[in-house]
């Protein structure tokens, strides 16, 4: 494709060379460059892409997009733009033939609930006969393949590549989690969403490498509603009006308030030996969920409204929601232990807000005890550790502090930080660094009616230590522990 075609929606200046050259690939990492590549120099959190121009050229890049003058061989075309992240989004969309324009596009944003809501939407659409792609925290599904996710919102050139793959696979719809970072860094620029959904907002992702403060975080979330046709807003969030201030879309609302367009009512907990769930009504239509918690009322209601707009029947939506499960989101692990009936749930809760939400939900089901098992990720904001420790200390009957993804930090130091949060409370706790041994203790000492919450890892199936990801899946650990303990019982008998 000619470089000039890639620049058609962009304001730019040709500093040297010609825009009438052929481009075979668009990259923003020099190591991905090959002959015929266009290298877009992104200024990252830690590095400046311009420092890697030499490497990109040595690998075959024939053109470079920058924000400033650079000194490189005259045979290399140099394009200067005001913002290379915005430029990358426009160039990538052009390179892949503007694939979002061939799909129904749905974007969901919020501090929590994005993954569950997008998975519910995808499952409802698939059951109703649509072919839907998915881009989210757990995975990307293109209709051809499933790819584990590294970021909730990948870089724009990656998103556009996935969208084109979805079109080629026959998808008619894509459902995307849209993160604040994705919006801030222009990763979803050049996508006009048919439907955008606002779930909620809480203080998270604020720090040196994310958002400067809550105001910036909030403003980035609101960007979604400047690039969608229809916005659907949770009125029960205190920040829903902040999302409307600059919105340029049609607007609909949902919530327990009588003035909402979609009124939620009559939530009833479902607590049986085989399931924790909840039922409710939306505009007097009954909905029953196999997933517990009032927050899943909001998640499923958002999915319901989106799919209603896409023509899915009430009966089809009700049927899918009655059985839907989302990996790592209040996911109940099927266990069979003699003599003791208790529940183990796996959830991605990795900040205080999410953990508090899970614990409040479990309390509402009146368990005998609540036992939490969690750690915190290394090389992330330390405040999260203190806050999660304090929340668990206040709300759980027992907290077992363990290891999560220590990355380049000492797990013991991370655990110490969590402990300091718990010690602000009267909560009981213990420390077992080995995650499997922590699970073993909780299972071995479980009492009738207990709920054990494995928090933090959720859908992840690895543990990251010093830059290496080792296989580790909480589901597998639970089943290994159950089997090993049952084998011991057999031997004793």
Biggest β-sheet description? 11 strands, mixed
Helix content: 25-40%
Strand content: 15-25%
Number of domains: 3
Task: Kindly provide the radius of gyration, computed on alpha-carbon positions and rounded to a whole number of angstroms.
Answer: 24 Å
Using DSSP, what is the number of strands?
24
* Rough outline: globular
Alpha-beta classification = alpha/beta
Number of helices, where a helix is a run of at least 4 consecutive DSSP H or I residues: 15
Mean pLDDT: 93
Measured distance between first and last alpha carbons? 73 Å
Task: List key phrases describing it.
493 residues; alpha/beta; Udp-n-acetylmuramoylalanyl-d-glutamate--2,6- Diaminopimelate Ligase, Chain: A, domain 1; UDP-N-acetylmuramoyl-L-alanine:D-glutamate ligase; Protein-Tyrosine Phosphatase, Chain A; 3 domains; eleven-stranded mixed β-sheet; six-stranded mixed β-sheet; 15 helices
Account of the protein in words:
It is a single chain. The chain is an alpha/beta fold and 493 residues long. It has three domains: 3-95, MurE/MurF, N-terminal domain (Udp-n-acetylmuramoylalanyl-d-glutamate--2,6- Diaminopimelate Ligase, Chain: A, domain 1, 3-Layer(aba) Sandwich); 99-323, Mur-like, catalytic domain (UDP-N-acetylmuramoyl-L-alanine:D-glutamate ligase, 3-Layer(aba) Sandwich); 331-492, Mur ligase, C-terminal domain (Protein-Tyrosine Phosphatase, Chain A, Alpha-Beta Complex), CATH 3.90.190. The chain has helices at residues 3-6, 53-58, 84-95, 114-127, 156-168, 180-184, 214-222, 240-244, 295-309, 314-323, 352-363, 383-395, 411-422, 435-444, 474-492, and strands at residues 13-16, 25-27, 37-40, 61-66, 77-80, 104-109, 132-135, 139-141, 146-148, 173-177, 193-198, 228-234, 250-255, 262-272, 275-282, 285-289, 331-332, 343-347, 370-374, 398-401, 429-431, 451-455, 462-465, 468-471. The strands form four sheets. It has an eleven-stranded mixed beta sheet with strand order 9-8-7-10-6-11-12-13-14-15-16, sandwiched between helices. Strands 17-18-22-19-20-21 form a six-stranded mixed beta sheet, sandwiched between helices. Strands 1-5-4-3-2 form a five-stranded mixed beta sheet. Strand 19 (370-374), helix 12 (383-395) and strand 20 (398-401) form a beta-alpha-beta unit. Helix 11 runs parallel beside helix 12 (383-395) and helix 14 packs across helix 15 (474-492). The longest helix has 19 residues, at 474-492. The chain is globular, with a radius of gyration of 24 Å.
């Amino acid at each position: 494709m000619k470089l000039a075609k890639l620049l058609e929606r962009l304001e730019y200046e040709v500093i040297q060379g010609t825009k009438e050259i052929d481009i075979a690939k668009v990259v923003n990492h020099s190591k991905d460059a090959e002959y015929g590549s266009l290298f877009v120099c992104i200024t990252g959190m830690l590095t400046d892409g311009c420092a890697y121009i030499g490497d990109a050229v040595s690998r075959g890049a024939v053109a470079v997009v920058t924000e400033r003058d650079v000194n490189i061989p005259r045979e290399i075309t140099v394009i200067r733009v005001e913002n290379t992240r915005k430029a990358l989004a426009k160039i990538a969309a052009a390179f892949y033939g503007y694939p979002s324009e061939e799909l129904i596009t749905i974007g969901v944003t919020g501090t929590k609930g994005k993954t569950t809501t997008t998975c519910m939407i995808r499952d409802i659409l698939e059951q109703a006969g649509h072919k839907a792609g998915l881009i989210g925290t757990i995975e990307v599904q293109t209709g051809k393949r499933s790819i584990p996710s590294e970021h909730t919102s990948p870089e724009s050139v990656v998103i556009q590549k996935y969208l084109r793959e979805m079109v080629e696979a026959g998808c008619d719809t894509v459902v995307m989690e849209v993160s604040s970072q994705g919006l801030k860094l222009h990763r979803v620029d050049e996508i006009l969403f048919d439907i955008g959904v606002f779930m909620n907002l809480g203080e998270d992702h604020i720090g040196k490498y994310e958002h400067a403060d809550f105001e910036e975080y909030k403003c980035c979330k609101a960007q979604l509603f400047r690039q969608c046709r229809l916005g659907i807003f949770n009125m029960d969030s205190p920040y829903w009006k902040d999302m409307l201030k600059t919105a340029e879309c049609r607007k609909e609302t949902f919530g327990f308030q009588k003035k909402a367009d979609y009124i939620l009512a009559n939530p009833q907990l479902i607590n049986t030996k085989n399931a924790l769930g909840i039922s409710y009504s939306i505009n007097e239509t009954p909905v029953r969920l196999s997933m517990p918690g009032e927050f899943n009322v909001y998640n499923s209601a958002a999915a319901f409204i989106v799919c209603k707009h896409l023509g899915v029947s009430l009966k089809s939506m009700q049927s899918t929601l009655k059985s839907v499960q989302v990996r790592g989101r209040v996911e109940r692990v099927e266990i069979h232990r003699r003599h003791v009936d208790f529940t183990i749930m796996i959830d991605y809760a990795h900040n205080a807000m999410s953990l508090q939400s899970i614990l409040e939900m479990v309390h509402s089901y009146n368990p005998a005890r609540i036992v939490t098992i969690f750690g915190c990720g290394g090389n992330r904001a330390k405040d999260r550790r203190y806050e999660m420790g304090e929340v668990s200390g206040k709300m759980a009957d027992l907290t077992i502090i363990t290891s999560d993804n220590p990355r380049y930090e000492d797990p013991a130091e991370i655990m110490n930080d969590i402990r300091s949060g718990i010690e602000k409370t009267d909560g009981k706790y213990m420390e077992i660094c080995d995650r499997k041994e922590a699970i073993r203790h909780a299972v071995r000492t479980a009492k009738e009616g207990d709920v054990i919450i494995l928090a933090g890892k959720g859908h992840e199936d690895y543990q990251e230590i010093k830059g290496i990801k080792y296989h580790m899946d909480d589901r597998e650990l639970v089943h290994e522990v159950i089997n090993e303990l049952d084998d011991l019982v057999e031997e004793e008998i």
